[in-house]
Amino acid sequence: MRIALIHAPPWKISAPGEPPDPDGQGPPRGYGAAAMDNLDFLSVPYGLLSVAAQALRAGHRVLVLNLSNFAWRDVERALTGLEAEVFGMTCLTVNRRGVAALTGLIKALRPGAHVTVGGPHVTPLAREVLDRWPGVDSVVLGEGEATFLELVDRIRTKSPLDGLAGAAWRENGAIRVGPARPRIADLDSLAPVHDYFPVDALVTSRGCPGRCTFCASKVMWGGRLKFHSVDAVLDMIEKAVRDHGLRALAIKDDTFTASRGRALEICRGIGRRGLNFLWSCDTRADMLDEELLLAMRLAGCQRISLGVESASREVLENINKRTTPEQVLAVTGLAAKYGVEVRYYMMAGNRGETRQTFGQSLEFVRRAGPNYCSYSLLSIFPGTREFELLAESGLGPEVFFEHDFPEFEVFAGRPEDREEIRNHVLARPFERVRRYSAAECGAALALTPGLAAAHMDLAGACCREGRWARGLEHALRAMEEGYPLPEVGLNYLACADAARGDLASARARLDRAAAGYPFDFVIRNRRRLEALLAGRNPEQGPGLDPNFEFATTMSPGQPIMPGPVSVRRPLGPG
């Protein structure tokens, strides 16, 4: 069958110069066209690619379209003439209004097509979605690959949906819900996403050992973790690195180190296979130790992200976090010991939050010294424990259909402290807390001798401290040792050239770096250099910026990112 899978925009985005949608389907008040212009949202959902991979392996013709930042008139152009028989979308809370609008558009353009939606927002709200969104024919609940393939097969054979496990649908004016579908027993049986798409992320497990009250992981995966085998994970990485040429990846498991032994074997397997890339992952402070952190560093791990949320024991207990500030502090120190960068996810406004508890969190971040810190306000997602508690106070699913907020932010702490805390978070949603010094990077290198990434990190620290000769020595050494992102080294060399006044050499190095991969830090330095060559001093000063922020290497085009779309593009793989 002909299948179109679409990553929808968050709402009807107006083109430049156009007024907002007159029917109220445009951005919420205060949100401009670029409000959702961040990589986490713009990148196509991994689950949508997994569904596409299964359909491609099954012999269907599949087109994946990333329309996440398209103006609505361009969405209409992209879908006009697209003769798919099944349209599918992943629905997140943040793009639920765009999904609703898109289903109506599809039905207007292709009234005979079947429109199905899945994902964490609609799984717990299937009945409400079918009741309120007339453009939706069915909802895929939770883990979607097997359900979607069976749904497509029934549509192909014109069979009724009666009894379809893991789905809800509309039938003769009534809403029907099929029986629960068992979880996929063997994740390795799935068609690998990287066989079909050059995506810069990978998911090696499903589920989380945590039981945080704000998290929607259980909505999709239930309470039990499932893992890809070590060999399957290594095959994914090898496909991404060797076949697609990606050199920096993000492992997007809820908790990558949930199985300590498996994580160790993956790290060791990366070394055995000679896979040369950098990577990041999300995990928990209670599921890391020194041996594992060292193995991760030697295997290319550049950054770990920890859900810290708060430093208040009362708040942590209220959200059932089951980690302690002491565990976070210990892991942060161990990561620094080996040169692994640490990012904290902090959350404000949970039950029990006060000016004092938030102050504890701020002080903890200052004392613990992670490299990055990301702050957010408590957002309520359907199906979570926090959603259930809110429902007990009289607020129900209707808020997601009757209001236009991107995410349902709630302050569950002391009301009189709300504005002060909220304003602080909104003013500083993300900050670079600190960078490792040359002394710290040198100590890490001594513990990981010969590691190209450790040499490059030391090069960057030396350059930031103005120790150019030593910085160049280690940058060149890292590149000789096969550091997977030579653009970083070229940037440091260009900074050194500029510091001694050789702007021509600096430009040549930055041009080489940009040709390798257009990292933001390279593009910024090229602009600064052009200003210097034109006789203008950039606001940041006369030199170049010797800083490197870890970022994945991704395909800039469809469907990984919302690049240009050919309206008459044939349905096919990727």
Q: Describe it for me?
A:
With 574 residues, the protein is α/β, with parallel strands linked by helices. The protein has three domains: 2-174, Rossmann fold, CATH 3.40.50; 192-432, Aldolase class I (TIM Barrel); 447-533, Tetratricopeptide repeat domain (Serine Threonine Protein Phosphatase 5, Tetratricopeptide repeat, Alpha Horseshoe), CATH 1.25.40.10. The chain is 40% helix and 14% strand. The protein has a seven-stranded mixed sheet, with helices on both faces. The protein has a seven-stranded mixed sheet with strand order 8-11-12-13-14-15-18. Helix 17 runs antiparallel to helix 18 (452-464), helix 20 (486-499) packs antiparallel against helix 21 (503-516) and helix 20 runs parallel beside helix 22. The protein is globular and about 75 Å long.
Describe the structure using short key phrases:
single chain, 574 residues, alpha/beta, Rossmann fold, Serine Threonine Protein Phosphatase 5, Tetratricopeptide repeat, 3 domains, 7-stranded mixed β-sheet, 22 helices, 18 strands, globular
List the helices and strands and how they pair.
Blueprint lengths: L1 E6 L31 H4 L3 H12 L3 E6 L5 H8 L6 E5 L5 H14 L4 E5 L7 H7 L5 E3 L4 H12 L10 E5 L2 E4 L23 E2 L2 E2 L10 H5 L4 E2 L2 H14 L4 E4 L8 H13 L5 E6 L6 H9 L2 E9 L3 H6 L6 H14 L2 E8 L6 H14 L3 E6 L1 E2 L4 H8 L6 H4 L5 E2 L8 H10 L2 E3 L5 H10 L4 H13 L3 H13 L5 H14 L3 H14 L3 H14 L41
Parallel strand pairs: 1-2, 1-3, 3-4, 4-5, 8-11, 11-12, 12-13, 13-14, 14-15
Antiparallel strand pairs: 5-6, 6-7, 9-10, 15-18, 16-17
